[in-house]
């Protein structure tokens, strides 16, 4: 991997971003550049993986950070040109290019959020690679969470108000990211969406639901305790009680005592 100075890097990226109106050429030029910067030794080794790994260039953090800065600036200046580039990068199997595609979506101005939502719906459902899906759900929702929290909730509703397991898992994963964002304050909307799932939790999504509730509890233990007490009072489903017990370690001592009392009082089947 050849070292590259910041001044030289900026010159190279300036040439690259001159292709911003030609997405296919941009994609090829960016891939060629990353290949030149790749740490091939990182991928070499004696151990053979038991299953195929997502291809990655293993680029120095300085290069990735500068690319992200360039994309952030380009999204402000030419957002329409960035959507086709994001589409091309997302179709590339390399992890860094998919991460950059997600970064582009997350930096779009509020005037272009519909394009972000459309791609989130499509990309999330067609992504079977967790190493790409998690950054997609975190990075690509940045502008949506910041500029249009109601649209973010509407997107969540589309995933969580059905019965499709993949949709539900995606929605629950998004909740984990949402509650880590201190600027997102619409917790009542999350509890409203979680309610039907907590009352009748199904096996395929039980662990996902537990992780989402634990994340919400870390954000607001008091509200989560109140929510779970309501669920226990209106449901005799033993899986609901199991979920509540999974959340207990995330609560304060007094909140744990309150929730344990509700667990003891839960109506039997």
UniProtKB/TrEMBL annotation:
It comes from the Bacteria. This is DNA alkylation repair protein. It comes from Anaerolinea thermolimosa. SUPFAM superfamilies: ARM repeat (SSF48371). Gene3D superfamilies: 1.25.10.90.
